[in-house]
Amino acid sequence: MLSLSTTDVPSRAPVSAVTFASGARALHIVDQTRLPGALVELALTTLPEMVEAIQSLRVRGAPAIGVAGAIALAVLAERAALENPATFHAEIASAAAALRAARPTAVNLAWAVDRVFEAGQGGGGDATPATRARAMRDEATAIFEDDVAMCAHIGAHGATLLRPGMTVLTHCNAGALATAGIGTALAPIYTMHARGDGIRVFANETRPLLQGARLTAWELERAGVPVTLLTDGMAASVMRSGAIDAVLVGADRITANGDVANKIGTYAVAVLARHHGIPFYVLAPTSTLDPQTPNGGSIHIEMRDADEVRSLAGVATAPRGVTVHNPAFDVTPASLVTAIITDQGVFHPPFHFAS
Ligand code: MRU
């Protein structure tokens, strides 16, 4: 794993969670485990490094891990075509399986890896490993570019639901760090901020891994968007005070009936929003829709290491052996969702997403 650059102080330059320059022979990511302290870019060249980066949340957020998985497979395919053409098929199939399985809840990862894998299966029996690898790179590039475009469309559609001067609450990080573009839940915020609409954000800290504090607060501050950080337990009283006009969250998987898997704690925010009469909006690209799964009951929720809850930055915050429950995501029932905003537009209940 090559560490390319380190800066201590964030600037306002745009941040890209994943980059894919033409001719790149590595998966380039921002190491999000180092934020907000340092902005470090990694160049990952091996399958174990790529899988580790996804599992340890160096790259994270549903669209970003989809894009990263796609680029990873394309990079590995090109190397296999060059170095081991005889074992190309077996190598690519096992890399695709490992990448696909790195995290189970966000549908984007399997969707993107499968797309790139399939792109390498075409061309008939005469296609060489090099031709197949080129088709896989083209597909990964398309996935990357589509994600950038989808974020922009989500921003435009989402902004139609908000008014200048509003204050919104968000949970976890569904911003530029979670996509190849300007984010999903944060996309309308960036869109409105760019046109001077005076939008303000309350960001839930998001226990246990603090994506709201470490990442959302960091990227919004860096962009000059007014942001106020809350610990998760504060959202109820802030909503009751009348300070929140809308909730905007991302999603890891949206089932046919509109149930939404997203970062643990999202369901609690949705219940609070309903209690306080605040609209609860879910923003996600179409790559996050999973019409094959009828409802949230069938979503595989990733369970993570107990030490994520028992300690913080290596310091114990609980008895060493205490039993811990640590699901990474929860499911918000469609009945609590005011609208789902995708790159295709604004969808109101009842939701019926078909393939
Ligand atoms: O575990 P993470 O940090 O990958 O979880 C991320 C989330 O839950 C995001 O809200 C979701 O992936 C949407 S990102 C546009």
Tell me briefly what this model is.
This protein has 355 residues and is an alpha/beta fold. It contains 10 helices and 17 strands.
Structural account:
- The chain has 355 residues and is α/β, with parallel strands linked by helices.
- It has ten helices and 17 strands.
- The chain has helices at residues 47-55, 62-83, 88-100, 107-119, 129-159, 187-194, 211-223, 235-240, 266-275, 307-310, and strands at 2-7, 18-19, 27-30, 39-44, 167-170, 200-204, 227-230, 246-249, 253-255, 260-263, 280-283, 289-290, 311-312, 315-316, 329-332, 339-342, 345-347.
- The strands form four sheets. Strands 7-6-5-8-11-16-17 form a seven-stranded mixed beta sheet. The protein has a four-stranded antiparallel beta sheet with strand order 1-4-3-2.
- Strand 13 and strand 14 (315-316) form a beta hairpin.
- The structure holds 5-S-methyl-1-O-phosphono-5-thio-D-ribulose.
List the helices and strands and how they pair.
Elements: E1 2-7, E2 18-19, E3 27-30, E4 39-44, H1 47-55, H2 62-83, H3 88-100, H4 107-119, H5 129-159, E5 167-170, H6 187-194, E6 200-204, H7 211-223, E7 227-230, H8 235-240, E8 246-249, E9 253-255, E10 260-263, H9 266-275, E11 280-283, E12 289-290, H10 307-310, E13 311-312, E14 315-316, E15 329-332, E16 339-342, E17 345-347
Parallel strand pairs: 5-6, 5-8, 6-7, 8-11, 9-12, 11-16
Antiparallel strand pairs: 1-4, 2-3, 3-4, 9-10, 10-15, 13-14, 16-17
Helix pairs in contact: 2-3, 2-4, 2-5, 3-4, 4-5, 5-6
5-S-methyl-1-O-phosphono-5-thio-D-ribulose binds next to helix 2 and strand 10.
